[in-house]
Prior knowledge:
By secondary structure, the protein is mainly α. It has a domain at 66-274. The protein has helices at residues 2-40, 48-73, 81-99, 104-125, 130-149, 166-186, 188-205, 210-236, 247-257, 271-289, 294-312, and strands spanning 154-155, 238-239.
Amino acid sequence: MTSIVSKRQNRVSAGRHKLDLKNAFPFLGLTAVLLFFSIATNGRLLSQQNMRAMLNDGLYILVASVGYLFMLAQGNLDFSIGANMGVSCAVCCIAANQIGVWASVPVAIITGSVIGLISSIIFIKGNISSFIVTLAMQFVLNGLVLVILNGARLAAPMSMLSLFTTPVKLGIAVGVVAIGYMVYQFTPFGKMCRAIGSCEEVVRQSGINTFILKVAPFVIMGALCGLLGFVSLIRTGTASNQTGSTLMMNVLNAVLLGGLPISGGPTAKFRAVIIGTLTMVLMTSGMTIMGLGTVGQQLVKGCVFLIAIGISFDRRNSKVIK
């Protein structure tokens, strides 16, 4: 009897140890990345000039990660966010040239929201995996942006470039993070997102309309993609078929490195957005300073993605892996 109790205690202790390691992984990863690249770049990583560059790049990852949090908390994925951003940027550019700069902002946001809405309806009503639906949507949108731009770059009004200032960047970042945090932590919608990720069937049997709850994160994500399309336009002054091409990998890596479980549920914490964004921005900037090209960076990010998803995946609820 004593040996049985002892074995159970050992199992509980081992389970807690694994949980502690999983919780500590995002902080350990951020610390390791910061130390390694600070040393490898001889301190240039945290120089004032490079900090500005990291703010520019980090804005995209941070804003998109806030939207991705709501989807991943439910256990859903959207692989079309980069393509959504590209289409929204192209539509925004056309609108800016025809109806004015400020009028193009809601046009971009509405465009992204509609794309997210379409993806979510196909995913829910068609009873098809969100991974499959959004992967297909990515190809559709990549083709659509080529049609819109006729395979060329489209220039925005020159006045738009003057909008990409530090106050604007910080205002967008702080505003999205603050609103996202309040909604995720303190509203019934945020709690329901985590509940659906934990056990959707229980939520449905409680009489709650899960259709709206599952559509909303895709629309939110789409709206943020539209906003980022506008941000890209005021930063570069052009719309092209390459706009948003790296967003998906960077965002998914960020939220997983930050500690979000790929299966969703109550363990999806908002802090993962901040920690993951910092980790990805430091890593990308460090590799750039060290002279690692695009191909090399993609290779490293792919390996990091495998490690992050391996750590975040909850094998206790997946007895059969397919």
